[in-house]
């Protein structure tokens, strides 16, 4: 009897890498929007009256709804409804949130436009513009995090048994390019004409719509894959058998929770730092926001170049747990340099590059390790639970850092607002906080490696079996 084996769309290298570029483009624009205001802290202080505490609150707001449970719901939606529905929903949420945030910081709103009175009537220490921008960022955050888990699951679907870690690495590399792009463009767009925080936000908001469109194109390819694999999703049913009660399995798996804890510790010292980095460099080196941004933008570039290479290394050689450990060590070293060493541009560049290497090692190893611990039908929820735990840190740390900056620098915010020459923050305390997170991540990495050795999860093994 002859058996015909049908070639599936993802067996074509061209098709699967095209699918990757399409979904990665959604994340590229998403990551641009996440950090569009990061290089503009100073301009927000002078033009919108946001001090460091407000800026920290704004940074944390991206994750508030996710932490309140949205991400867990997002994981369930993903496992029940599949990557196409969830991806389109998440990209639409990003666009909606971006629109609200743009309106919140617009001149029209700030000069008493629709809703201004209401947003000025509570928590009066916080400017109305910040409150509405936070609301928009919360909605956007639901979209971007939901998109993050969807993209991870889509990559596992398209690349299992193929170049999975490389694909994840490339997806993250493209996202990092978005961060580089926004750190390069945002201060420049803000300074075109009279300085404005609205202009860059509006421009990147429009780019998000392109991200929605690229995901739409991906859904056409993904439908074809489902038809070929005969997946039930093609008939509008769940892609895999998933029960909500399975979630208990995730919360009782020690190793899975260790990976999640490592993730929250590590990323809490990366993304919140990213939001304050321009201001930290500006303050420590006495340079402009544009110059500080020009130094910091090399951080995502370092990560961009190395993440796919390390992903490929992991596919063929393994050593995932060791990479996690090394990443935590490098990150701690870098933050300690910023905390304790008198900064020169050369030291700043070196530390930023070190951090870029660290930011390749950990993501390249962490995300592809999840399918080794959790079976496919639970994967959406597994990524969602890790993101959820991680989001608690991402929400809390910008607030903690903003607050610690204010408390350790009494009177400086007022001086900056009044335009006092030479007024700058001392970032020692916030940077020591970030360093402690790195040390804790390192200790957890040691524990994870020991667990892997005794229980044989295969974290040190390659993804592609010869
Ligand atoms: N498919 C992507 C895997 C996760 C990549 C990871 N992103 C996150 O962990 C997000 N939960 C947090 C993003 C924060 C900015 N919105 C990454 O390394 O970027």
From TrEMBL:
Protein family: Belongs to the major facilitator superfamily.
Pfam families: MFS_1
Protein name: Lysosomal dipeptide transporter MFSD1
Phylogenetic classification of the source organism: Bacteria, Pseudomonadati, Bacteroidota, Bacteroidia, Bacteroidales
Originating species: Alistipes dispar
Keywords: Lysosome, Membrane, Transmembrane, Transmembrane helix, Transport
Classification via InterPro entries: MFS (IPR011701), MFS_dom (IPR020846), MFS_trans_sf (IPR036259), MFSD1 (IPR052187)
PANTHER family, sorted: MAJOR FACILITATOR SUPERFAMILY DOMAIN-CONTAINING PROTEIN 1
Chain ranges of the Major facilitator superfamily (MFS) profile domain: 247-466
Subunit details: Homodimer. Interacts with lysosomal protein GLMP (via lumenal domain); the interaction starts while both proteins are still in the endoplasmic reticulum and is required for stabilization of MFSD1 in lysosomes but has no direct effect on its targeting to lysosomes or transporter activity.
One annotated Gene Ontology cellular component of this protein: lysosomal membrane
Catalytically driven reaction(s): L-histidyl-L-alpha-amino acid(out) = L-histidyl-L-alpha-amino acid(in); L-lysyl-L-lysine(out) = L-lysyl-L-lysine(in); L-arginyl-glycine(out) = L-arginyl-glycine(in); L-alpha-aminoacyl-L-histidine(out) = L-alpha-aminoacyl-L-histidine(in)
């Amino acid at each position: 009897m002859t058996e015909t084996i049908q070639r599936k769309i993802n067996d074509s290298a061209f098709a699967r890498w095209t699918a990757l570029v399409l979904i990665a483009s959604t994340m590229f624009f998403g990551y641009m929007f996440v950090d569009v205001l990061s290089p503009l802290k100073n301009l927000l202080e002078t033009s919108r009256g946001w001090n460091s505490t407000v800026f920290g609150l704004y940074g944390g707001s991206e994750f508030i709804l996710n932490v309140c449970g949205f991400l867990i719901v997002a994981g369930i939606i993903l496992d029940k409804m599949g990557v196409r529905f969830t991806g389109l929903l998440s990209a639409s949420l990003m666009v909606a949130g971006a629109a609200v945030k743009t309106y919140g910081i617009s001149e029209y709103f700030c000069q008493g436009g629709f809703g201004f009175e209401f947003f000025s009537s509570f928590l009066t220490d916080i400017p109305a513009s910040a409150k509405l921008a936070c609301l928009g960022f919360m909605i956007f955050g639901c979209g971007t995090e939901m998109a993050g888990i969807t993209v991870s699951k889509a990559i596992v679907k398209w690349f299992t048994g193929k170049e999975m870690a490389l694909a994840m690495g490339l997806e993250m590399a493209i996202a990092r390019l978005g961060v580089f792009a926004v750190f390069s463009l945002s201060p420049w767009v803000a300074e075109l004409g009279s300085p404005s925080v609205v202009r860059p936000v509006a421009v990147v908001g429009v780019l998000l719509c392109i991200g929605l469109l690229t995901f739409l194109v991906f859904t056409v390819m993904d439908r074809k894959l489902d038809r070929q694999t005969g997946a039930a999703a093609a008939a509008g049913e769940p892609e895999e058998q998933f029960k909500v009660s399975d979630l208990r399995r995730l919360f009782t798996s020690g190793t899975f929770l260790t990976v999640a804890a490592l993730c929250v510790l590590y990323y809490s010292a990366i993304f919140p730092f990213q939001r304050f980095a321009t201001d930290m460099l500006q303050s420590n080196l006495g340079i402009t926001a544009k110059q500080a941004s020009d130094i910091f933008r090399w951080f995502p570039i370092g990560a961009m170049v190395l993440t796919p290479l390390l992903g490929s290394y992991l596919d063929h050689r393994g050593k995932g747990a060791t990479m996690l450990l090394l990443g935590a060590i490098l990150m701690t070293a870098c933050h300690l340099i910023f905390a304790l060493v008198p900064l020169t541009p050369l030291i700043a560049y070196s530390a930023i590059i070190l951090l870029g290497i660290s930011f390749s090692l950990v993501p390249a190893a962490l995300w592809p390790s999840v399918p080794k611990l959790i079976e496919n039908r639970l994967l959406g929820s597994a990524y969602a639970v890790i993101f959820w735990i991680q989001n608690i840190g991402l929400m809390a740390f910008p607030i903690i850092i903003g607050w610690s900056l204010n408390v350790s620098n009494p009177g400086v915010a007022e001086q900056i607002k009044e335009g006092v020459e030479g007024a700058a923050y001392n970032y020692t305390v916030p940077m020591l906080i970030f360093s402690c997170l790195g040390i804790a991540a390192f200790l957890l990495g040691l524990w994870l490696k020991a667990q892997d050795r005794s229980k044989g999860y295969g974290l040190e093994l390659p993804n592609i079996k010869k």
